[in-house]
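Researcher: Following up on the earlier apo prediction. This time include the ligand. It's adenosine-5'-diphosphate, with the SMILES given after the sequence.
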Amino acid sequence: MESIKKNEVILSINHLVKDFPLGQSVKDNVMRAVNDVSFELRKGEALAIVGESGSGKSTGARILTRIYQETAGEIIFKGEPLAEYIKENGELEYARQVQMIFQDPFGSLNPVHSIYHHIARPLLIHKRADKAHIPKLVFELLEMVGLSPAKETAEKYPHELSGGQRQRVAIARAIAVDPEVILADEPISMLDVSVRLGILNLMSDLKDKHGISFMYITHDIATARYFAEKTAVMYVGHMVEWGDSDSVTQNPEHPYSQLLLSAVPEVGRAGKRELLAKKGDIPLWKPSSVGCPFAPRCLKATEQCRLSFPEARKVGTNHFARCHHINR
Ligand SMILES: Nc1ncnc2c1ncn2[C@@H]1O[C@H](COP(=O)(O)OP(=O)(O)O)[C@@H](O)[C@H]1O
Ligand SMILES: [Mg+2]
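Model: Understood. Below is the ligand-bound prediction.
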């Protein structure tokens, strides 16, 4: 089996586009949920995709898990176009390598099955071990995600666990099949604040010790900085800023990233915050739409912003943004 070294690119997407039909009547009656998105995911690294609801984050993840077919663009997995990789290795093998964790850990577990069943099932489907060895593996996995005593946990049912514990089960199920990549779609946003950090730290451990790559989808730019080496900021299907998380979150150049950061509560920050954007609706983006999607809310927007979406500009060592008002 091919082995990929730490920091090698494992998954990349180039100029990804996804349109959804809005109705049947008019031929071009479609909305563009993902618009020309490109990024790389490296082994053992986390890439945070940050943006408000409706920015196309989950659609991107669903394309990567083949729930949706992309409208245009290219996906490269382990150096090969994804369709070819799947043709050669099979859908099941790709599904094993790219696992998903969802926002609602209760919804993703089956209430009629024990925790044991949830972890044993993927081990059987993907033939990870002989039947006789499965119990030992299940217990090891539960220990690995901090659910001990494992035997006791295995006998329980989803409703007997807390939200944080259920999310740990979902993580154990994902790592049971030894994946290369985990797509984590808002994995902590439904959990109590008190257990969120524990889940992020568990994912950090899996990344650092086991070399699993994470695409971490969130609307919370503060956790992106905490967990992910790289951050991409999305607005209405567009990538507006991306690069090293430190740089993107400490020196955001795009007015939308600045807005997201201004919403992060910070100890000691005084009084009233500067107004960073106009109130406004999120535009419905169509293939024929032009300009910067943030222009309707942007305090800096000019005619140019309404007419064209700017090229990417390098604003730091590994830091890019698309804004006409960056002068470099
Ligand atoms: N299956 C679908 N059919 C039609 N529109 C969809 C579908 N899935 C998502 N969308 C639309 O695509 C946009 C992006 O949605 P989504 O990817 O879920 O955003 P996010 O995860 O960032 O909140 C939204 O406007 C949403 O309504
Ligand atoms: Mg979503």
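Model: The pocket of adenosine-5'-diphosphate (ligand 1) is lined by residues 20, 33, 51, 53-59 (CB under 6 Å).
Researcher: Noted. I'll compare it with the apo version next.
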